[in-house]
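[job 0412] stage=complex_fold ligand=NAP status=START
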Amino acid sequence: MTRILLTGATGTVGTHVVHALRDRAAETVVLVRDPEVAAARLGDVRFAPGDFDDPDSLRRALRGVECVYLSAADGPRKVAHETTVIDAAAESGVQRIVKLSAMHADPASALPAFRWHGEIEARLLRSRVPAVILRPAFFMTNLLMVAGGVAQTGLLHAPTAGRQVAMIDVRDVAETAAVTLLADGHAGRTYDLTGPAPITFTDVAAALTEATGTTVRSVDLTEEQARPRFERAGLPDWLAVHLAGVFGLIRAGGFERTTGHVQAITGRPARGIGGFARDFAAAFTLPAVPAGQSG
Ligand SMILES: NC(=O)c1ccc[n+]([C@@H]2O[C@H](COP(=O)([O-])OP(=O)(O)OC[C@H]3O[C@@H](n4cnc5c(N)ncnc54)[C@H](OP(=O)(O)O)[C@@H]3O)[C@@H](O)[C@H]2O)c1
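[job 0412] stage=complex_fold status=DONE, emitting structure tokens
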């Protein structure tokens, strides 16, 4: 059986890749910095202690491994982290790397995370390890960043100019990754991954209204109105620049296109916003006040 090493496995997408591979009874090893924390999150999986900053730990983790799921946190160390894995994988004879990238990845991008992905993709192609590149659109889970504010105010603010976004559920990204790790025939391909249909933030608000039973209204902000919100959020500079750029791309229609790759690869239609809203309704809802504590 093919042995697969998963990196970034405790992450938003990675956690679901672990589940998707477990469902398929795949032989997996999970690179983790802290096995105790990872065990609490991932349950019963085989761990390889390791760190992207420690190439020897990567070489040890890669022994006997044929396929690698490559994902690291966004940030200034991202390119160094992922290229260290690529180099170690090439050296140890890995036969396939499935890289989690992003739609609009481009080494010339002004958006930091898209530039980093573009640089890593270029390095991966030069490595000559057969590769599958997954470029998902905007994650539905990004909405969780503003869930508390939506619960408190009933308002969903975003600078989208009413444009549509073919946002994707990370569970579909993970299912697609699992299939391309296990099945032959995808090496050399780059897949833009989207949800089933482009939707506006007004559609998102409607889905949240239905799921929570409380009215949620979408409020479109101008770029000027949104800027101080990003600045006040206390984000690292690169992330504030990146998020502002993502919404700029949305306003330019850069996330409206849908592709059928999730369904073609996994055999199941991509999940829509209704299911996401139902599954995460609690995050967008104020906690109930226990009886006797109101007023
Ligand atoms: N948000 C979007 O709309 C969107 C859209 C398209 C693509 N993407 C891409 O999706 C990716 C994010 O994936 P994700 O959400 O699954 O990841 P994530 O939640 O950011 O998790 C990062 C992972 O990297 C691990 N990690 C960090 N530093 C490490 C180190 N030094 N050594 C070993 N492991 C380390 C973390 O492990 P620990 O548990 O040890 O911290 C964690 O498992 C990014 O590349 C992003 O650009 C995002």
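The radius of gyration is 20 Å.
[job 0412] exit 0
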